[in-house]
């Protein structure tokens, strides 16, 4: 039985990867941070399983990483933990650098200090944001990097320190350059989930409209559940190499928005340009989508488009197992159900208050 250690196991990718590895027969360990708020809803269904274990550790604390790596002595490490929100990196650049840059170094050093350089394979979750102010499209493993945010700059250090440890110490460590990947488990502050949740709430009368940033931004969106398979395949490869993980297809935020509202039962029509562009309900003429300057970044990446040829050829990975339309439909379906449950809960609570007032229930 192989043993895997996943940092960031409570996140979207970490939870899907944990499920995938358990199905493969792995002994799965994950690191979590101490918090007074429960943030483990994505992995709650796994807790209590015999081959699933959690440990307290933090990428900002080298001693905690040394302790966990030394105790678990994993065959594979998947470093998925990060401050992963681009906009937040402008507000918290120092924290982002400590976790996303130096944190990678701490993981590599923990493996080296524990004497596991020849037995432990390491996957580093890199990002398409490395390409930033893109110099060519689509982007592949040889495309020059031009990071365009504190997040991307920090991740670039992580990418290069992995290469350095691979060459200096002969370690099997690789980076997967992940393009945007979404799912029903995506955080609500990310634009795709913000859109699908808003579409569900608007369709069910719980929200008036949604405010977004640059509707013309182009992204390569895939399904996170498919992408974790590629992470695993990278570590099963004969030699340590870096791979672009993408679909090879490109869509705008506007297109994602139209499709999400379509699956929620609303047909959108966009009119205007730039900050004046609005999305109208074709049936009622009501404005449901507006652009706000608050969601524009100081430096904005507008044209990310990955070339997954190497992963397809060398690893046999299928990047479009789940199509773009299927991805959006899955997300909207999940959020429609989630909002319906919220509404039912509110209805029950309202009725209970009414019954208490009338003395029907004591």
Automatic annotation (TrEMBL):
* Pfam families referenced in this protein's UniProt entry, alphabetically: GDP_Man_Dehyd
Q: Which GO terms describe its molecular function?
A: GDP-mannose 4,6-dehydratase activity; NADP+ binding
What is the catalytic activity of this protein?
A: GDP-alpha-D-mannose = GDP-4-dehydro-alpha-D-rhamnose + H2O
Q: Name one GO biological process term.
A: 'de novo' GDP-L-fucose biosynthetic process
What region holds the NAD(P)-binding domain?
5-331
Q: Name the InterPro entries for this protein.
A: GDP_Man_deHydtase, NAD(P)-bd_dom, NAD(P)-bd_dom_sf
Keywords for this entry?
Lyase, NADP
Cofactor(s) demanded: NADP(+)
**What Enzyme Commission number(s) appear in the record?**
4.2.1.47
Q: Which family does it belong to?
A: Belongs to the NAD(P)-dependent epimerase/dehydratase family. GDP-mannose 4,6-dehydratase subfamily.
Briefly, what is this protein's role? Catalyzes the conversion of GDP-D-mannose to GDP-4-dehydro-6-deoxy-D-mannose.
Name used for this protein in its record: GDP-mannose 4,6-dehydratase
Which species is this UniProt entry from?
A: Alistipes dispar
* The organism's taxonomic lineage, starting at the top: Bacteria, Pseudomonadati, Bacteroidota, Bacteroidia, Bacteroidales
